[in-house]
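User: Hey, quick favor. My workstation is busy. Could you predict this chain's structure for me?
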Amino acid sequence: MNIQTEQGEFEVIDSFAIKRRNEFYMIGELKKGTMQVNWFVNVTLNLGLSLSLRISEIETVEFSEEKRDYKLIIISAEEEIINILLGLKIGIELVKISIEGKD
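Assistant: No problem, here it is.
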């Protein structure tokens, strides 16, 4: 990923899917920078390989027990991709937000 296209860092607390909606969700906090719909979340798989996922929607989530808000990144994907993402167990990790990526 080109460093000029990097726009932020998002700390994922946990991830989950709603398969009948064909959506994968990452909940967490934007630690640095900014993010927008149609930008990309870049999940590092290993030292030389990362997966870029287009952001479909961004929502604010509030929990009744907590004073702060969290962000929910929503990614629309086919069932096969959602199964792969669930298998990665994305959580408690920092992901990069960028303008460019591949669908």
